[in-house]
Amino acid sequence: MTVFIWCSLIFVILSMCGIMYRVFKGPSVPDRLIALDGIGVMLISSIALLSILFDTPFFIDVILLIAIMSFIGTVSFSKFIERGEIIERERPH
């Protein structure tokens, strides 16, 4: 079982390196945004595999924190790409 987890961890890290290419060479900004979200998912996967490998539940808090930050970042970047601003304010007349 340990060999399978190590192999999975290596494949996840190799996939993360492949996605880094899309972050730097993406043809458009939305492609780069999707790649950044993919890196967040791969990071969560690798930490989950390490948590299983080390047989500790302490990494679950880190996984939740990274997931929340990744979601907020993706939503913020998407909103900025769509509208040009992240926080909309009421302007006085």
UniProtKB/TrEMBL annotation:
<comment type="similarity">
    <text>Belongs to the CPA3 antiporters (TC 2.A.63) subunit F family.</text>
</comment>
<keyword id="KW-0050">Antiport</keyword>
<feature type="transmembrane region" description="Helical">
    <location>
        <begin position="6"/>
        <end position="24"/>
    </location>
</feature>
<feature type="transmembrane region" description="Helical">
    <location>
        <begin position="58"/>
        <end position="81"/>
    </location>
</feature>
<keyword id="KW-1003">Cell membrane</keyword>
<feature type="transmembrane region" description="Helical">
    <location>
        <begin position="33"/>
        <end position="52"/>
    </location>
</feature>
<dbReference type="InterPro" id="IPR007208">
    <property type="entry name" value="MrpF/PhaF-like"/>
</dbReference>
<dbReference type="Pfam" id="PF04066">
    <property type="entry name" value="MrpF_PhaF"/>
</dbReference>
<keyword id="KW-0813">Transport</keyword>
<keyword id="KW-1133">Transmembrane helix</keyword>
<keyword id="KW-0472">Membrane</keyword>
<keyword id="KW-0406">Ion transport</keyword>
<keyword id="KW-0812">Transmembrane</keyword>
<protein>
    <submittedName>
        <fullName>Na(+)/H(+) antiporter subunit F1</fullName>
    </submittedName>
</protein>
